[in-house]
Design brief:
The structure is a single chain. This protein has 2 domains: 3-185 and 225-249, NAD(P)-binding Rossmann-like Domain (Rossmann fold), CATH 3.40.50.720; 191-223 and 254-290 and 308-326, UDP-galactose 4-epimerase, domain 1. Strands 3-2-1-4-5-6-11 form a 7-stranded parallel beta sheet, sandwiched between helices. The protein has a two-stranded parallel sheet with strand order 7-10. The longest helix is centred in the first third of the chain and has 22 residues, at 99-120. α6 packs parallel to α7 and α8 packs across α12. Helix content is 43%, strand content 16%. It is globular, with a radius of gyration of 19 Å. By secondary structure, the chain is α/β, with parallel strands linked by helices.
């Protein structure tokens, strides 16, 4: 039985990855932080995951990316065949508000995990979830694996550090250390403080008469938005490749926040211009105008390409919020 360790298991990508792995017969171990609130709704409400916890194929362990001893102990105990490192502070605006915490969890947290693998399970395949933010306001579009890294926010700077560490440990220590340079990917499980989920949730609540407006920073930034489940399948393809390497995962098409709003409100036959309020409190100190990825390497070498279109993704997210409200519960 394949044994997998996941950091960030309670997040959007972690929950989808866990479902996929369990359906394939794997034993999944997840890293969770000790806190006063058990933020595990993405795991607890999924019947297959609850069943796997009962039969012992899904196990959650307390550890923290800031604590190397807990990570080293856990890696030695689990002896994973794969380690998917998805955790870390990833919200751009928060990274400006909490730069030191972001650097520690996202940057040094990766170092601590790599060291734990090197010392305790050197045969493990290590995957890092990197980000398109590492390119900053790139001079070339679309961006690929050879595009120069030029971060413009603390989160991106921490990910550049983490990605370089993966490459160093791959070369210097012979680890199967690989990464996915992931462009924006969304789903109904996206955190509520991310703009796509915030818009989808607001549309549903406005359509049901619970709210009248949604506050956003800007409608102009353009992003390469894909579906999280497509991205998770790409992540697994990278980790299972014959040799460790780094791959861009993207759709190759960019849309603006305005495009997202227009489509999302259109699902409920609403005009976004009547409900969107531009609020300077939600702007970033430095904004990237556009990200657009070139995933031709992943398609050529791994056979990966996204399936869900942007329009289908927006419709899926809004319908999920509407269904949750109609069931009398908040969408998880």
């Amino acid at each position: 039985m394949t044994r997998v360790l996941i950091s960030g298991i309670t997040g959007q990508d972690g929950s989808y990855l866990t479902e996929d792995l369990l359906s394939g017969g794997a034993e999944v171990h997840g890293i969770v932080r000790q806190s006063s609130l058990l933020q595990r709704t993405r795991l607890d409400h999924i019947p297959a995951l609850a069943a796997a916890r009962t039969d012992g194929r899904l196990k959650l362990h307390y550890a923290d990316l800031s604590d190397s001893s807990s990570l080293q102990w856990l890696v030695r105990q689990v002896q994973p065949d794969f380690l998917y490192h998805l955790a870390g502070q990833s919200h751009i605006k928060i990274s400006f508000d909490m730069p030191e915490y972001t650097a520690d969890s996202t940057g040094l947290g990766t170092l601590r995990l790599l060291e734990a693998v090197r010392q305790g399970a050197p045969g493990c395949r290590f995957f890092l979830a990197a980000t398109s933010e590492i390119f900053g306001q790139a001079e070339e579009s679309p961006q690929n694996e050879k595009t120069p890294m030029a971060p413009v926010n603390p989160y991106a700077a921490a990910k550049v550090y983490a990605l370089n560490l993966v490459r160093i440990y791959r070369r210097a220590h012979g680890l199967f250390a690989c990464s996915g340079i992931l462009f924006n990917h969304e789903s109904p499980r996206r955190g509520e403080n991310y703009v796509t989920r915030k818009i989808a949730r607001a549309v549903a609540r406005i359509a049901r008469g619970l709210e009248t407006t949604v506050h956003l920073g800007s409608l102009e930034p353009r992003r390469d938005w894909g579906y999280a489940l497509d991205t998770v399948r790409g992540i697994q393809a990278i980790a299972n490749a014959p040799a460790p390497d780094d791959y861009v995962l993207a759709t190759g098409v960019a849309h603006s926040v305005r495009d997202f709003c227009e489509l999302a409100f259109g699902v409920c036959e609403l005009d976004y211009r009547s409900h969107v309020v531009l609020d300077p409190d939600y702007t970033r100190p430095v904004e990237i105008f556009e990200t657009r990825g070139d995933a031709s390497k992943a398609k050529r070498e791994l056979g990966w390409q996204p399936d869900l279109t942007f329009e289908e993704l927006v419709h899926l997210m809004v319908r999920s919020e509407l269904d949750a409200l109609d069931r009398g519960e908040e969408n998880r």
